[in-house]
Amino acid sequence: MKDTQNNIPRTIPQQSATFSNPINAEIRRAAATGIYDIRGGGAKRRVPHFDDLLFLGASISRYPLEGYREKCDTSVVLGTRYAKKPIRLDIPITIAGMSFGALSGPAKEALGRGASAAGTSTTTGDGGMTSEERSHSTQLVYQYLPSRYGMNPDDLRRADAIEVVVGQGAKPGGGGMLLGQKISDRVADMRTLPKGIDQRSACRHPDWTGPDDLEIKILELREITNWQVPIFIKVGGTRPYYDTALAVKAGADVVVLDGMQGGTAATQDVFIEHVGLPTLACIRPAVQALQDLGMHREVQLIVSGGIRSGADVAKALAMGADAVSIGTAAMIAIGDNDPKWESEYQKLGTTTGAYDDWHEGMDPAGITTQDAELMKRVDPVEAGRRLSNYLKVMTLEAQTIARACGHNKLQNLEPEDLCALTMEAAAMARVPLAGTSWYPGKEGF
Amino acid sequence: MQVFDLEAEGLRALNSSLHELNGSTEPGRWEIVNPKGSHAIAVGLDAPIEVTVKGSTGYYCAGMNKQATVNVHGSVGPGVAENMMSGAVIVEGDASQYAGATGRGGLLVIKGNASSRCGISMKGIDIVVHGNIGHMSAFMAQAGNLVVCGDAGDALGDSLYEARLFVRGSVKSLGADCIEKELRPEHIEILKDLLARSGADAKPEEFKRYGSARQLYNFDVDNVGAY
Q1: What's the CA angle centered on A221, arms A124 and B101, to 5 degrees?
Q2: With CB atoms 3.0 to 4.6 Å apart as the test, which of A351, A417, B10, B24 could cross-link to A405 if both were Cys?
């Protein structure tokens, strides 16, 4: 007051960059509750991503393909190494594993319908296979998880592929969690657990540890299924070079590599934000491992974690992936975080686009819930149509880019089509910084 | 009886021959000779047949078994009868780690000792071990009965759900949330049945029962030291 009266300039109140308001709020929340923050989704922090890459396009040195006349193949075959019946997809975009339990039955049905209409596969999750998703998915990948909830040889044999889940990008090294409020009678029955208790899924498989055991486990799964279907191995992005090499050594047909932007139904926020690698940083080491083993394109690589558009698809493929997988984007396509539920998000203390308390089972969009009334908000036919539309748009976008770069097949995109906008992205993607012929780590400079 | 020489004819031929029976009962009896520690012997069976393995096996013998009775005249490697659905697996010798892991039904009998993590994550299987079991057995066990005629190692029943554990001998230590519980008449009946079916020479009254205290079923910060 005195300074103002004397007209002396005051120091402006300064917020701490270290102790910011969100950080302080979290400290107060932890102090009040005594529990770490649990949420769904993937890393929300800004990390180097596909947005930090650009395509160069054709010019005098390369010529483009005519967008509306010349073919650009989008198909991909997964599981050509050992499986008698590889998976043949029309588009290189698959639907990632999301469990019945984490997601409602209508949401799972919508994913199956949408994927099937677009000519691609969908994937079960940590809760077993439901008859609805099997019947609505022309190509269904059956996850083999540490919890083995719902695992049985009959479902194993009616799957189109088996995905041995070692880890996922949101929580590499962590198990799953489904809190009691989402454990309905049906979910409890499928998982052989009492209703209403917190379900902890183990972080390691119960009957194997390490790559030598994994090789024998894969032998068992192949023997049970008579070597018919491909076996995928899914890993979270941590040490992609070695994990990919070991997955190949263990006998995988396909390696699924999930970066830290990949979502989860629920885990600790500290895990999501502080463990694992950005998707962008995972791809080149994994491809390098495949190339070093002479297995690039023999063992297919599926990349997931933050894929949103056809540009992202094209960039992942240009870096050497055979296909991508989407989870969060697919949920958004079928109605997750839709602005039409804003008033209800507000009641839950959040807002459209930020809603991530999927574990609480109160999802206004009816997707991450087992509430009988809320799940009615998902019309599986309509939501499936939206997902199919979205998948087709992504494919068209990827084709647009591929043709502009002169490729008649999406998998023909290559690192030479790319440049990076930042030093970090250049280093991770191993493509030159825009306007240069150099990237950090490149030898010869 | 069908005699199958595993060394001569190979694993793929064995399992595909056994799978072709699915649902059928003929031939009803199989004898597998020269197993020589091979992995994945007789996995994924789904027929009411009797298979005898003349020797010791590697990993995952009789994995995901349905309906069949598999006798092993030897010892078994890790993960015997993993995820068994129904039927029976009887091991005359010892079992390595993870015996009966995630099993959902049927009866697994180990006439010797079982190593660590016996019955890990079991979901309805009945397991009877005539000898001792190793550490971390019945970890996160959800349902079914684990009967141990000898002693149990460290951390028995850690993070247990609703499986019932019966031990006749000593328990080196109990895992988080596992406690001794009263042996009631219905448990005597369960034991009587399982001991008889597994050919174990023991009396139900000699056993102690262990189960979940159910204190960790829903997170409570005051239990954080137990996790």
Answers
A1: 85
A2: A417
B196 C-beta neighbours (distance < 10 Å), count: 10
Tens of pLDDT, residue by residue over A419-428, are 999 999 999 9
Which residues are paired to B108 by β-bridges?
B89, B127
> Which residues on A lie below 8 Å from B64 (Cβ)?
152-153, 156, 224
DSSP per-residue string spanning A404-435 = HTT-SBGGG--GGGEEESSHHHHHHHT-PBTT
| DSSP type of residue B59 | T
CA distances to A248, A322, A349 from A85, rounded to whole Å, are 19, 18, 49
- Tell the residue number behind the tokens 């910060």, with chain if given: B221
Counts of helices then strands in chain B (DSSP H, E): 3, 11
Query: pTM for the complete prediction?
Result: 0.95
Q: Who among B16, B39, B97 is closest to A219 (CB)?
A: B39
The CATH architecture that domain B2-217 belongs to is: 3 Solenoid (2.160)
Helix H, strand E, coil C: the string for A304-373 is ECCCCCHHHHHHHHHCCCCEEEECHHHHHHCCCCCHHHHHHHHHCCCCCCCCCCHHHCCCCCCCCCCCCC
The structural domains of chain B, with segments of one domain joined by +, span 2-217
Element (H, E) at B208: strand B208-212
The span from the CA of A437 to the CA of A388, in Å, is: 39
Q: What's the CA gap between A327 and A336, in Å, rounded?
A: 11
In angstroms, the CA B20 to CA B171 distance is 44
Can you give the residue ranges of every domain in chain A? 38-429
8 Å CB contact of A194 and B117: no
B40 contacts in chain A (CB < 8 Å):
216, 219-220, 223
For residue B22, pLDDT beyond 90: no
Helices (H), chain B: 6-9, 11-20, 185-198
Q: Which of B11, B217, B224 sits opposite A223 (nearest CB)?
A: B11
Give the type of residue at A81. R
- Give the tens place of pLDDT for each residue, A370-414: 999 999 999 999 999 999 999 999 999 999 999 999 999 999 999
Tell me the pLDDT of chain A averaged across its residues: 94
Region at A208 (left for phi over 0; alpha for psi -120 to 50; beta for the rest)? beta
Q: Cα A44 to the chain's mean position, in Å? A: 14
CA distance A348 to chain B (A): 22
Pick the CATH number of A38-429 from 1.10.40.30, 3.90.1570.10, 3.40.630.10, 3.20.20.70: 3.20.20.70
pLDDT digits (tens, 9 = 90+) for A61-82: 889 999 878 999 999 999 999 9
Q: Which residue has the tokens 């460290």?
A: B154
